[in-house]
Amino acid sequence: MYKWYARFLGGQQSIHDDKRSGRPNVTSNHVAVIKELLNNDRRITIREIHERSDCSFGTVHRIIHNKLNMRRLCARWIPKMLTDEQKVESVRCCNQFLRRFHREGERFLRRIVTVDETWISLYESETNSQSSMWKTPGSPSSKKFKSAHLQGNRCSSSSLTSTILRRDLMRAMRKRRATKIADTIFHHDNAPSHRAAESQYTIRKLGFEVLEHPPYSPDLAPCDLFLFPTLKNVLRGEHFDDVDELYLVSEINNGSYFNSFMSWINRCKKMCFLSRRVFREGLGACFG
Q1: What's the rounded Cα separation, in Å, for the pair 152 and 274?
Q2: What is the largest CA-CA distance in the chain?
Q3: From CA 195, how far away is CA 69, in angstroms rounded?
Q4: What's the start-to-end Cα distance of the chain, in Å?
Q5: Which residues, 6+ apart, have CB-to-CB distance to 211 below 8 Å?
Q6: CATH 3.30.420.10: which residues of the chain?
Q7: Percentage of residues in the chain having pLDDT higher than 90
Q8: Mean pLDDT of 48-53
Q9: Residues near 256 by Cβ (< 8 Å), separated by ≥ 6?
Q10: Is it the case that residue 8 has pLDDT exceeding 80?
């Protein structure tokens, strides 16, 4: 009130605020300077750009997101850096898989039996999103505990893998599949226990046709792509006393299995498409 009183005594008659300068105008020169800084160092921060240019912190932020349409993302973790030979082998396996699918159709997919192993816990801890909840400032903090793994043989043992193939897999196939064993296509990834001599001997003795798997490609295995994440998502936050209770909740819809095989095909197509694009870009770099 005292400020307004002093202003009216000074001759001001309007009750509205004075016009302000507003946000600084963003020129093409500002955009070019920030773009050059980003091209020189992709890990530079907004504060560092602000200190090296004549733009404010907020202006730098708006230019990066609105003008340059850029986001700051973390590097994606991958389990293995593939060599050129392994990349070529991956593309070859994907092309072979797709050609056979186009030739035989869905019958080819229904002949496939894919096998893999994973750890199952009596208690699987929830993810951060699953354990989140609304709280007031005075609410106590939530806690979650580590997964409690089952005790026993390690799932990476080649002898255990051979036993599972001879006993459990054959029993399940005789019970649930009408396809003959000789007409079955066997698929598994390239884990050490699967590449072991004992496991390979068991597969040949059972008479399976083996479907090749690309090296170090868990994203091209239906078990790692769909089955294990879906199964563990159902089990998260649940406590079990023994293994028998796990079997009661581990049933998954058969339609979901078929959808995972279609995702498998789409990922193989993506692998082949990316390899052709990289090849064309390489030719352009050589002859450009």
Answers
A1: 42
A2: 104
A3: 46
A4: 72
A5: 97, 112, 185, 186, 187
A6: 84-127+148-287
A7: 11
A8: 90
A9: 226, 230
A10: no
At 116, is the pLDDT very low, low, confident or very high (cuts 50, 70, 90)?
A: confident
pLDDT of residue 205: 87
Phi, psi (deg, nearest 5) at residue 191: -65, 155
Q: What is the pLDDT of residue 245?
A: 67
Residue 111 has pLDDT above 60, yes or no: yes
Identify residue 142 by its one-letter amino acid code.
S
**Cα–Cα distance measured from residue 44 to residue 64, given in angstroms and rounded to the nearest whole number:** 12
Tokens standing for residue 259: 């959808």
Question: In the chain, which ranges are E strands?
Answer: 112-114, 121-123, 148-149, 185-187, 209-211
pLDDT confidence tier of residue 287, bands split at 50, 70 and 90 = very low
Length of the chain, please? Answer: 288
Give the pair of three-digit tokens for residue 52: 């090296």
Tell me which amino acid residue 240 is: F
CA–CA gap between residue 277 and residue 121 (Å, rounded): 42
Structure tokens at 209: 């046709």
Q: Tell me phi and psi for residue 116, to 5 degrees.
A: -160, 170
Report the top-level CATH class of 84-127+148-287.
alpha beta
Tell me: pLDDT of 22 over 70.
Answer: no
- Dist. CA 3–CA 207, nearest whole Å: 94
Residue found by looking up tokens 């193989």 in the block: 268
The tokens for 161 are 């893998």
**Tokens describing residue 205:** 């003795």
What pLDDT, on the 0 to 100 scale, is given for residue 36? 92
Token pair belonging to 142:
């939530």
Distance CA 153, CA 92 (A): 35
